[in-house]
């Protein structure tokens, strides 16, 4: 599905080039102030593209519930946006299922409906560790915590859907999903930790979760998309080694496709608001368009989804196992 943004992505020239920003998406959709009364819930809003996603949806008039582990850090990062009477901050530590449940309970106590859920927060290649519930850090944080959050919020997402405006779930994946499947026999990498492989597996899980949400709840009016935001200048890569960063620094193509955070948030906002996507879901998006299959001959970081992205059987298995893992 080519969009009006396709041409802008054909010859990228680095951060700040002509590729769209999240704010531009709202303006192009004619949504300035038009989503007043609608509610969005966004995880990971103390840095990076979470902040820019929030700014764009605030411009559209939405009431926002923004989560962070540190609310003081989030207030500083959000600056004047945190002072808006349409912005509410919620403490959420995705390292803990208890924290997810507490956060969801508080949100539900204050709202009868939810229109947009954006599972934005994530960690990348941290040192080997376990969440408070005993899962490999990236799988537990990036996938399982968001999986639990969706399931807890699903009833009010359903309550928020209308015939003219369905509820939407946006789950951030990554180009990294192409490089690892989910190993159901060892999701914790207990037989040998590989940070990049664990990250890739968690991003495959994110993609499959969005697809499965669409299959299970699309007919009821909750539509889901997975999003590859692009290579974005954020602190997500803080745990990468100097040698790994050196490989990235030496890649001229990768340098050209890097985005600023406001550009990196554009596809998330497009997924959450674009009229062209109304009533649809279950696809992997990047560069503000529905992605095609990756051609490996075009380069390691070229656009496209991996061959296992739309594996229905594996996605269903992940859903069933994840229900057990999070205690649902």
Automatic annotation (TrEMBL):
One of its Pfam families is adh_short
InterPro entries recorded: NAD(P)-bd_dom_sf, SDR_fam
Name the UniProt key words of this record, in alphabetical order.
Oxidoreductase
* Taxonomy, superkingdom: Eukaryota
Q: Has keyword Oxidoreductase?
A: yes
- Span list, region Disordered: 1-20
- Is the Oxidoreductase keyword given for this protein? yes
Please give one Gene Ontology molecular function term for this protein: oxidoreductase activity
Report the family membership: Belongs to the short-chain dehydrogenases/reductases (SDR) family.
Report the protein name in the record: Short-chain dehydrogenase
Gene source species: Cylindrodendrum hubeiense
């Amino acid at each position: 599905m080519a969009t009006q943004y396709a041409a802008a992505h054909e010859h990228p020239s680095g951060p700040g080039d002509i590729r769209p920003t999240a704010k531009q998406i709202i303006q192009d959709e004619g949504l300035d102030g038009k989503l007043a009364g609608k509610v969005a819930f966004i995880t990971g809003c103390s840095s990076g593209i979470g902040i820019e996603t929030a700014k764009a949806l605030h411009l559209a008039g939405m009431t926002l519930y923004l989560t962070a582990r540190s609310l003081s850090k989030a207030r500083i990062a959000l600056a004047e946006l945190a002072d808006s009477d349409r912005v509410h901050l919620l403490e959420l530590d995705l390292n803990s299922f208890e924290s997810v449940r507490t956060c969801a309970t508080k949100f539900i106590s204050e709202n009868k409906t939810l229109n947009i859920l954006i599972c934005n927060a994530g960690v990348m290649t941290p040192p080997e560790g376990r969440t408070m519930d005993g899962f490999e850090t990236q799988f537990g944080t990036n996938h399982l915590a968001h999986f639990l959050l969706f399931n807890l919020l699903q009833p009010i997402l359903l309550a928020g859907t209308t015939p003219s405006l369905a509820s939407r779930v946006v789950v951030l994946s990554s180009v990294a999903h192409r490089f690892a499947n989910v190993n159901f026999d060892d999701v914790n990498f207990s037989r040998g930790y590989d940070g990049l492989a664990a990250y890739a597996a968690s991003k495959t899980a994110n993609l499959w979760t969005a697809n499965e949400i669409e299959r299970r709840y699309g007919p009821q009016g909750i539509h889901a998309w997975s999003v590859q935001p692009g290579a974005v200048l954020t602190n997500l890569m803080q745990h990468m080694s100097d040698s790994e960063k050196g490989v990235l620094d030496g890649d001229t193509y990768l340098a050209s496709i890097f985005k600023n955070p406001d550009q990196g948030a554009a596809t998330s906002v497009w997924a959450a608001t674009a009229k062209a996507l109304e009533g649809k879901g279950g696809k992997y998006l990047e560069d503000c368009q529905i992605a095609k299959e990756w051609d490996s001959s075009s380069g390691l970081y070229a656009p496209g989804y991996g061959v296992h992205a739309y594996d229905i059987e594996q996605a269903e298995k992940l859903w069933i196992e994840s229900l057990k893992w999070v205690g649902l």
